[in-house]
Design brief:
- This protein has 260 residues and is an alpha+beta fold.
- Helices cover 17% and strands 45% of the residues.
- Strands 4, 6, 7, 9, 14, 15, 16, 18 and 19 form a nine-stranded antiparallel beta sheet that branches. A seven-stranded antiparallel beta sheet has the order 5-8-17-10-11-12-13, with no helix packed on it. A three-stranded antiparallel beta sheet has the order 1-2-3, with no helix packed on it.
């Protein structure tokens, strides 16, 4: 028996049996093969969807945050460092629309990718933050004058304000200082804590300033080295800011606030 196979333009398969005499004709439409492939893809998609649902349910039952899992994976792949998942605030000072001046007669400008303040200047970032956080001033430099620093748990009270600050303060006998401000913005003396600059410290070159704010405990680091700790429970929440002292001129490359 001879089988002659003829393929149609649409992919259909015609087979004629018995030496060319049309005694039997078998037709296999092309659609059948494509439909089987479509069914296979559908089954795979359903299986993947069920696996995804099962994984999500497992994470929920074990108390694992999907966001935390995502951040852990992205941080592990981020071999250059610098997690972005836990940023509460990230400002490279490309604009000043997220900041507001609330005290002082000084000026603030953007120049060469830096925020620079001159004179007695206190500014607040508009971001709403949780009670606890880490503040990082990146590449901070005192070009001249008495000092600069970061403000935290700040609240405006009419024409005044209250909260805390960490200062790099050459004007106060070359010390790092934790300050407390009453509801009318007056600094409490003596400071909450103070310590002399370490030997060789030069405020006129770039430094990374970090302040860890957790509960009633505040810890300051300069270039990754712990400098001092203060404790106070008066103010439990508020915004973050930047201050330059009296006749100071200071510039900062960037500011981040992260979860503790």
């Amino acid at each position: 028996m001879v089988i002659i196979k003829i393929v149609g333009q649409d992919g259909s398969d015609f087979r004629v049996f018995n030496n060319g005499h049309l005694q039997s004709l078998e037709v296999k439409p092309a659609m059948k093969k494509n439909t089987m492939k479509g069914d296979g893809f559908t089954e795979y998609a359903l299986i993947l969807a069920l696996v995804a649902v099962a994984v999500i349910l497992m994470l929920v039952l074990t108390g694992t945050s999907i966001k935390d899992l995502y951040c852990s994976v992205t941080d592990a792949l981020n071999f250059k460092g610098g997690s972005t998942c836990n940023n509460l605030l990230l400002d490279g000072f490309g604009k000043l629309t997220d900041w507001t001046k609330f005290w002082g007669g000084g000026t603030w400008t953007l120049a060469n990718g830096q925020l620079c303040t001159a004179g007695d200047m206190r500014i607040l970032n508009k971001a709403a933050l949780p009670n606890d956080y880490n503040i990082n001033l990146n590449g901070a430099t005192l070009n001249s004058g008495n000092g600069y620093g970061t403000l935290f748990r700040m609240a405006k009270n009419g024409t005044g304000y209250s909260g805390y600050g960490f200062m790099v303060d050459p004007g106060l006998n070359n010390q790092f200082v934790f300050r407390k401000y009453t509801t009318n913005g007056v600094e409490i003396d003596p400071p909450l804590a103070a310590v002399k600059f370490p030997p060789g410290f030069n405020p006129g070159v770039n430094h990374d300033i970090s302040v860890n704010v957790v509960g009633s405990t505040f810890t300051a680091y300069v270039d990754g080295v712990k400098m001092l700790t203060a404790n106070d429970s008066t103010y439990t929440s508020g915004q973050v800011g930047i201050r330059s002292i009296v006749n100071a001129n200071a510039c900062i490359n960037g500011m981040t606030v992260t979860a503790p």
